[in-house]
Amino acid sequence: MEEILEARLAHFELDDDRLNKVLTMVYNSPLRITETMVLERIRDRYRWPKSYSTGCPSIERISREDGYKEQDFFSVFDDHLLYDQFLELYKEGHTFVLSGVQYLFNDIAVITDRLNKEFDIEVNSNMYISRGSKVISYPYHQHDYAVIIKNIQGKSKWLIEDEDYTLENQNVFFIDKFKWHCVKEIYGFKLSITFNLN
Question: What's the pTM?
Answer without folding.
Answer: 0.90
